[in-house]
Amino acid sequence: MLRNRAAPRRGSVLNVLSSRTGEELSVHGHADARFAPVVEAFTQNFTHHHEIGAALAIYQHGKPVVDVWAGYRDLGRGLPWQRDTRVPVFSTTKGITALVVASAVSRGFLDYDTVVTEWWPEFGQHGKQAVTVRQLLDHQAGLPVISTPLRTTDLHDLDALARILAAERPRWEPGTSHGYHPVSLGFYLNELFRRADPAQRTIGQYLAEEIAGPQGLQVSIGTTINGDGATGGRSIGADELAMLRATTRGVLIDNAREIPWTMVLDIARHTALRQQRLSVEALSNPRVGLPQHASRETFIAPEMPSSNAVATARAIAALYSDAATPGASEIISDELRAELAAPSLPGAIPDHDLVLNVPSRYHLGFRKPHPTFPFGRRTGPADGDGRGFGTTGIGGSFGYADPTAGIGFGYVMNQLGVAMLDDPRPRRIRAALDQVLGAS
Fold first, then answer.
1. Whose CA is closest to 119, among 136, 102, 106?
2. How far is CA 313 from CA 44, 204, 206, in A?
3. Which of 275, 220, 274, 277 is nearest to 87 (CA)?
4. In sequence order, what DSSP letters do the residues of 326-392 get, joined into one string?
5. Contact, 370 vs 71, CB < 8 A?
6. Span 24-51, mean pLDDT?
7. What angle do CA 312, 45, 6 make, to 5 degrees?
């Protein structure tokens, strides 16, 4: 079982003046005294960087050391962010899904190095017959694009979706390169999972029944609104869900350096020439609406295990804490924990991402530290660029494990940012955390 799930002490940690609303806000929750600089970095997102509502949770060696929240879950209605406020976390979902897959591998009904067709024979069409589960997880299968137009309503018919996915042609020879699968990956993994699971459950069902429910974690994939909000359930009350806000002019100005200008200009050039770009194709299907509308039930109700988990920061941090802490639970074996924590080193696959057009490293469904994206502590040259693993979400959310320091980290917010890969808000918090851990 995951340990130390008791709620930290409640109360106001401190009061801050919001740069967004100009009013005084209370930062609620608890933080161990030595993590005060981390809480200060969290508050500066409100005082200097236009944050609306957010939560931060950090576990160390299985124990909660930071659990704070502040601001508004719904600015338009003036509703405050509360202890159990959940929010859509976009691609931070991929890390949650990768942890579910790791649980299945630990329990023996999935294997990273077995071909997908072992469970899903139809997947082998068009040269995909040798694709392994590992290659699929690590964005090497060449399947970032779904060619058949889909709407969110189409995502509820999993049998029909499986036929569409199986018929897709790879955009490069599987196993020779990698390119981020922003949405499609979750659908492929979900179909694979429900075929491999002895109970034929989806990833969302397994997460609810085997992990979130038993461990009391408020995280779900495939979520309905107006439920009773039971911990670990897949239905929540409307007032538990944070309302996302579109990027504002102030946020754009504050984060101009974070805009991926090279990618933006590349997309614009291809659009002007009426050429398709992998990144555009990968992000434009299925048509699920603008990110600021992701709090709607039409977005969060179907299972999209790449992009539509709804979670608290505490749940994300607890999941990663389990993955970073030997002996923490039976959800993931210690042998697999060691494999997840493999150092981030250059491998046989080039670092260049064919979809994002930036350097990146992936491992068993997670992003790994890279010179362009450092996170977590290093113990020396043998660590390469670190043993951490996690995923970021468009708009600013982030969850990761740092096995070297025994850290599980979760950050969620409802003001959408502009950085695609490393939002400055959690980055500032990570910098403060690194200083604290370096001094301890």
1. 136
2. 18, 18, 20
3. 220
4. TTS-SSS-HHHHHHHT--B---SS-SBBTTT-SB--EETTEE--BTTB--S---SGGGBT-S-EEEE
5. no
6. 92
7. 30
Is there a contact between 130 and 431 (Cβ–Cβ < 8 Å)?
Answer: no
Residues 6+ apart with CB under 8 A from 286: 146, 149, 150, 151, 152, 154, 155, 183
The bridge status of strand 79-80 relative to strand 63-74 is antiparallel
The position carrying tokens 């962010």 is: 81
Sign of CA dihedral 80, 299, 234, 137: negative
CB atoms within 10 A of CB 375: 28
| Three-class SS state of 315 | helix
Environment class of 253 (CB within 10 Å of its CB; exposed 0-12, middle 13-18, buried 19+) = exposed
Tokens linked to 296: 């709607």
Q: What's the pLDDT tens digit per position in 348-374?
A: 899 999 998 889 999 999 999 999 899
Instruction: Round to whole Å and give the CA distance between 265 and 260.
Output: 9
Return the biggest CA–CA distance within the chain.
Answer: 59
Q: How many helices (H) and strands (E) does the chain have?
A: 14, 15
Are the C-beta atoms of 340 and 365 separated by less than 8 Å? no
Residues 187-198 have pLDDT tens digits of 999 999 999 999
pTM of the entire predicted model: 0.92
Residues 6+ apart with CB under 8 A from 12: 26, 27, 28
Alpha helix segments (H runs only) across 15-91: 36-47
